[in-house]
Amino acid sequence: MPDDVASLANLHDIVVPAPVPWWPPAVGWFVLALVLLSLIGWVGVALFRLHRARRYREAAMVELSAIETGVRDPETRAGALEALPALLKRTALACWPRDRVASLTDADWWRFLDDSAGDDAFSESYGEVLGEIAYGRAATVSNEQLSGLLHAARRWIRRHDCPAGGR
Question: What is the average pLDDT across 2-20?
Answer without folding.
Answer: 80
